């Protein structure tokens, strides 16, 4: 039986039948060379959102004078504290932004359903992203499965389909708590640029403020000498002074933040590698959760992860968290395992202790 990537007839083809240049090929079970899904032509066509690096400073500036409402919650297994911006607060910000882009984003949020090539659910904190946090906290329990993974050695963290970016937030918090300045680069990637601007980045700012600011700083940076500004524990006013303090503290701690929006594919990986040109022998951690739910996208996300893993070889660690079965959609952790096996990729898998069966794959 030949090796199929799960694409329909127009989505993959023999390499010798194409005129594309700079494509890569992979071998099927019968020895036939097929175009790597990363190079599929449909990724370059409408309505697929093309990947691009989002300007970190511009995204920060867009949050100036925004009051963030957020919640503090604990993970189910390890009671680890995390922070996340409230969804209603994101909707409120979009309503206050008087532009057509904000109106389109608001229409999507009101509906809140996943919409292919439009909105991929990044504003919801999916269960598996929290599973990753608990797994990182309990790493000592999984020493036989994660023997090489030491967060203290990680210098690059890449979260694909990051959404609310809770795993990144946890590692970010650990780095800050250690008062380290040895350097770490967080790269957050999500299909929707609005998710990066309205959820991913604000969650990191909230975490930083909660972990580093004294009570006086918490008040003074929000009031800026205006005693009439209310100060509460679950809201954070992003004044120019507070944003600047965050920005400067990131520099002092040698923390880099990068944002990439748009679809996965060869173009995405090229952008990603441009941000990681100085990796050398540094350790890289790649995280993705709830991204294998659609069978038609399984080859693309799988090859994205394989390509990154091959790029950095023994320095790369990848965690893929997912539900065992996505009822009504068709994706499953078994299909992902099968794909990796067919591609001769070594991996370990362990089950999450939960009512709804979930797993984490370590590559």
CATH names the topology as Rossmann fold
Sheet with most strands: strand arrangement = 3-9-7-6-10-11-13-12
Describe the main β-sheet briefly.
8 strands, mixed
Number of domains: 1
* Count of DSSP-assigned helices: 11
Radius of gyration, in angstroms, nearest whole number: 21 Å
Shape: globular
CATH superfamily: Vaccinia Virus protein VP39
Give a nutshell description of this structure:
The chain is of the alpha/beta class.
Question: What does the model show?
Answer:
There is one protein chain. The protein has 363 residues and is an alpha/beta fold. The chain has a single domain (38-362), classed as Rossmann fold, CATH 3.40.50.150. Helix content is 35%, strand content 20%. The chain has 11 helices and 13 strands. It has helices spanning 56-62, 87-96, 100-111, 127-137, 166-177, 193-212, 215-223, 240-252, 266-274, 298-312, 333-342, and strands at 25-27, 33-35, 52-54, 67-74, 81-85, 154-160, 184-190, 235-237, 255-261, 283-289, 316-323, 348-352, 358-362. The strands form 3 sheets. The chain has an 8-stranded mixed beta sheet with strand order 3-9-7-6-10-11-13-12, sandwiched between helices. Strand 10 (283-289), helix 10 and strand 11 (316-323) form a beta-alpha-beta unit. The radius of gyration is 21 Å and the shape is globular. The two termini are 26 Å apart. The model is unreliable at 1-21 (pLDDT under 50).
């Amino acid at each position: 039986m030949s090796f199929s990537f799960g694409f329909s007839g127009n989505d993959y083809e023999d390499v010798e039948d194409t005129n594309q240049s700079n494509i890569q090929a992979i071998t099927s079970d019968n020895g036939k060379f097929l175009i790597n899904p990363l190079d599929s032509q449909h990724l370059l066509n409408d309505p697929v959102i093309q990947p691009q690096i989002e300007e970190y400073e511009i995204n920060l500036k867009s949050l100036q004078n925004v009051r963030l409402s957020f919640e503090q919650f604990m993970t189910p297994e390890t009671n680890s504290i995390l922070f996340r911006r409230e969804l209603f607060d994101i909707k409120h910000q979009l309503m206050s932004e008087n532009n057509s882009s904000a109106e389109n984003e608001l229409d999507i949020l009101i509906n809140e359903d996943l919409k292919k090539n439009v909105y991929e659910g990044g504003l919801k904190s999916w269960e598996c992203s929290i599973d990753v946090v608990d797994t990182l906290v309990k790493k000592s329990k999984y020493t036989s499965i994660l023997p090489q993974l030491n967060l203290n050695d990680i210098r690059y963290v890449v979260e694909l389909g990051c959404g609310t970016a809770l795993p990144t937030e946890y590692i970010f918090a650990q780095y800050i708590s250690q008062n380290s300045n040895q350097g770490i680069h967080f790269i957050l990637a999500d299909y929707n640029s609005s998710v990066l601007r309205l959820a991913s980045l604000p969650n990191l700012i909230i975490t930083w403020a909660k972990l580093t600011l004294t009570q006086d700083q918490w008040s003074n940076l929000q009031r800026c000498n205006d005693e009439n500004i209310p100060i509460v524990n679950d809201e954070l006013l992003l004044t120019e002074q507070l944003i600047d303090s965050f920005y400067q503290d990131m520099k002092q701690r040698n923390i880099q933040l990068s944002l990439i929006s748009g679809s996965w594919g060869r173009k995405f990986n090229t952008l990603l590698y441009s941000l990681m040109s100085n990796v050398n022998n540094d350790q890289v951690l790649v995280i993705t959760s709830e991204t294998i739910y659609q069978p038609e996208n399984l080859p693309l996300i799988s090859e994205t992860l394989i390509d990154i893993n091959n790029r950095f070889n023994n320095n790369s660690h990848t965690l893929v968290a997912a539900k065992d079965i996505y009822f009504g959609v068709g994706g499953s952790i078994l299909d992902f395992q099968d794909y990796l096996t067919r591609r001769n990729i070594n991996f370990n898998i362990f089950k999450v202790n939960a009512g709804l069966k979930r797993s984490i794959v370590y590559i």
